[in-house]
Amino acid sequence: MIKLNETPGSHVIRSSSVYETKPFGYKDQENFLNAAIEVSTESPLLEVIDCLKRIEKELGRVPSERWGPREIDLDLLFYNDVVFSNEKVTVPHKEVASRDFVLVPLCEIIPGFIHPALNLKICDICISDTEKYIVKKLSDTIL
User: Fold this and answer.
1) How confident is the model at residue 1, as a pLDDT?
2) Residues designated as active site
3) The domain spanning residue 59 has which CATH number?
């Protein structure tokens, strides 16, 4: 989060609790830590993506198999109420509504936010038919 606050024109508004979660996709690996962060930024969407990728690299992320072990993974879930897709990014993130390890932390920080593609409040999105990944809540906030 410090790296996000160091980005000109950007600052962290709030963060969720940290959750230990089972791995998604490739299952034969250690559990993950997940959280959500709300950031205010003056940067355009594609610059935000470039910034997140740069921070991942600075923190030691190296190319690996999809959903495999990694040092860090920063995903852009929403960019206000923008709906956009190209070869670099899709917002809203196309898997937000099917992953409890994304929805639960989001409900903590932006419970009334309306998913711009689904037209539903984040906390009203039901994922009862999907596997649950959250193992336990580890802390009340990452700030």
Assistant:
1) 57
2) 61, 70, 73, 75
3) 3.30.70.560
